[in-house]
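Human:
Focus on the backbone:
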Amino acid sequence: MRNGIVVVGNGMAGSRLVTGIRSRDRDVPVTVFGAEAEQPYNRVLLSNVLAGAAEPGSIGLVDPAWYGANGVDARLGVEVARIDRDRKVVVAADGSETEYGTLVLATGSTAVVPPVPGTRDGADGGLPDGAVAFRTLDDCRTIVAAAEGARTAVVVGGGLLGIEAARGLVGRGLDVTVVHMAGHLMERQLDPGAGRVLARTLRRLGIRAELDATVTALDVAGGRVRGVRLAEGALPADVVVLACGVRPDTALARDAGLAVERGVVVDATLTSVTDPDVRALGECSQHDGTVYGLVAPAWEQAEILADLLTGADPDARFTGARQVTRLKATGVDLVAMGETHHGDDDPDVEVVRFTDAGRGTYKKVAIRDGRVVGAILLGETGTAGTLTMLYDRSAPLPSDRLGLLFPGVGGATEADSPVRMPDAATVCQCNNVSKGRIRACWEDGARTAEEVVARTRASTGCGGCRDAVEGIVGWLAEQDTVPAG
């Protein structure tokens, strides 16, 4: 299979690439290696599994039977040990060798485990019982098992993943404390004001936050975690979840002599700058100095690369992506995009802000040269569609800025309303699905939200746009029944 495509990594990026290749070309040989033995799954929805709101099987992306039915050689549960670029061969951990014409690295990221005492006190020299680094579905199962009969939990890390883990554990009845090194939660996406409102919201949900706090060690006794030690005091816990961030998994690429900075360095065709026969996408890749850690850019890269590898669009190029972060857990709705840390003292930036800490609401829009350059919506996200569209397209803004914060106010287009939303508006950010595409599906015979989802994949990423998709389908159904005047 010298001319075949070999994909290393079967997560959200790799599986999307494989299905995209096969939808465009039924004949090209494709082999995919997945370190995890199960079907690829939606990592964005792991917090729902942790909270008990979803079963592990419900977040799968590709049925294992699909591979055989579509002529894809899937090596699930088989890790790749090394890449021999001279012979153009992938060597697996089981000793097998697979030739490639094009090699695609989609190895994703690995969880960061802080190098503190106690993290190597387990029976196998790893984490002790009751301590888990939250990254995979197996990690999720381990946390759920550890939570059985437990009363208290500490989550180390107050970023997006840490907040999701904490919300999931509270949903299982545990008393949860988040320990975070920074002065406010989710400091990469939120400014201090939004961080304070988020902390207050979490307190109402039963989650305490210890800020400006550093974990100096895990407390371990008899091979089991008993809590964490801080620079000032200690926190006992039956379960400790490490959500300390991730780093691109570039070990294979580095060992193979490929150019690696934070990620595998690629150009606009997602080709390694070192080897024209090697591509990389998703969290392990670095394009124009940026490593994208969100699902929407990874899926966009997968579609572009599928076009290039099959010849469906030889001119396809990845030119970068706007990053929109969404957190949608029970009791916490959050959308953040772009430059969120501007203050009122910046003379070049106009800031529009509304805060109602008692209701858990914080809204902020940063504007430069009449264009949205950043926004935060916490607690009430009714204008998220409008702001995302304005941010994505650098579109001109309405004169009444209140419409950016409150749906239906002033002259702003209420993009979350199917009636007013323009066809060009992006409904599903993860899959880049516009209202116009949903309308086209309707006109082509899709009459339910499920049929639209099946054709467009809208709402299969973070799930935050499901209500909008259903609203558009419902509105289209109403229009279809209106008699002609």
Q: What stands out?
A: Residues 331-408 form a domain with the Enolase-like; domain 1 fold (CATH 3.30.390.30). The chain has four domains: 5-109+247-310, 131-244, 331-408, 417-485. The chain has twelve helices and 27 strands. The mean pLDDT is 90.
